[in-house]
Each structure stands twice: as structure tokens, then as C-alpha cells.
Amino acid sequence: MAISVVIADDQEMVRTGFRMILESQPDIEVLADVVDGEAALAAVAEHRPDVLLLDIRMPRLDGLDVTRRLSGSDRPRIVIVTTFDLDEYVHAALHGGASGFLLKDASPAMLVEAVRAAAVGDSLVSPAITVRLLREMAPKTPAAQARRPSEPLTERERDVVRCLARGMTNAEIAGELYVSLSTVKTHLANVQAKLDARNRVEIAAWAWESGLAATTT
């Protein structure tokens, strides 16, 4: 089954470029491209896409508001793609449930990777902002106020989360810890359940907020 996508951006050249990049992939289908947030909500209701690519600054309703309004089990995975590398935008988008955050100067390969990652419940944030953002978020939330897992993380789960919080991909974590890729995915799934987190970005944010990311093994 192809990954279905809706694109929402007020710039026609951007929408056209994204559509060309994504439709060049055999496993991705663009169902619609729209010019503002209200149209994005309507397109999601009509097409039920797997992934919604959202600009932040759009007429009528911006991408952050669209992200907040889309909720429930049938909401699409949301990837924010924007020109604006502002921490408050990234923070609001990810805590609103977005599965990824890319800058518009990201490579076509990264755009495709972000869509594929979002479709399977994973997430991708532009490497230039990931660790910087999470480190800067950490001091704003006292460790004592960070969410508590439903049950303690195992030592190996803690190792995996530390690597994740430092911006490593699953494959890099597997290499770092000398375990299989499937083992990494299992540990992350367990951690996600214990934290009731929506995606790996929330897990990484928790690691910095709780102080786990700053500790050493």
C-alpha cells in the first residue's frame, strides 16, 4: 500500500516541488495539495491521508493550530516543513503531536525519509535543530516535574533512550549498543508505552527534561 500524503503550504512553488519529489517515489501518493490551514483540515477529512505535510505560516489557520485541532486515533501523522528555524515553533509543533519538523532547505531525500518515518509511527527532525532544541528545552522543566513512567525503565531501555536523546537513529543506536535493530525498536516501543508518549521525539524530550540524557552509564 502506498503512503498517502496531503501537502499544505501557501506557496505554489513549494507545493509543486514537494509533490514532484514525493510522487517520484513508488511507495508515496500525494492525494491533494492545499493553500491554507482551513483547506488542510478539509482535505484531511475528505482524504484521510497517512501523512500531512504542514507549513507553519499560512493564511486563515496556521500549521500549529491545524496540528492542535487534529486529534484522535484517525488523525494523520504530521510533519511540519517550514522556513523558520525558531525554537518556539519546533517546541509547539512537537508537543502538539507532530511526528517531524524539517526546514525547507532539507534535501529531497530527507523529505522522503520524514514521510516514510511518520507513516510507520517514527519521527524525524532536522539534525541541525534536534539536539540543540531538546537541550534548551530541558532547563525549562524541573526534573521533578517530568512525567513519571508507568513502571521503571530497565537499564538497557535507559541506554537506548540516552542515545535517542543525542540524535542517533535506530541503526546508530544498534551499532553503539551492539544489539540488533529489532531489539532497539522493541526497547523504544516499551519505553513509549511506559511514558504514554506519542512518538520518539516525546521520548527524547522526556530524556532531557528528566535529566536522563545528561547522565552517563
User: How much strand?
Assistant: 5-15%
- Number of beta strands: 6
The largest sheet is: 6 strands, parallel
Q: What is the residue-averaged pLDDT?
A: 84
H-E string: EHEHEHEHEHEHHHHH
Contiguous helical run count? 10
Radius of gyration: 17 Å
Strand order of the largest sheet: 2-1-3-4-5-6
Helix percentage range? 40-55%
List the helices and strands and how they pair.
Blueprint: E1 3-8, H1 12-23, E2 28-34, H2 37-47, E3 51-54, H3 63-69, E4 77-82, H4 87-95, E5 100-103, H5 108-119, E6 124-125, H6 127-137, H7 155-165, H8 170-177, H9 181-195, H10 200-210
Parallel strand pairs: 1-2, 1-3, 3-4, 4-5, 5-6
Helix pairs in contact: 2-3, 7-8, 7-9, 7-10, 8-9
Outline of this structure?
This protein has helices spanning 12-23, 37-47, 63-69, 87-95, 108-119, 127-137, 155-165, 170-177, 181-195, 200-210; strands at residues 3-8, 28-34, 51-54, 77-82, 100-103, 124-125. It is an alpha/beta fold. A six-stranded parallel sheet has the order 2-1-3-4-5-6, sandwiched between helices.
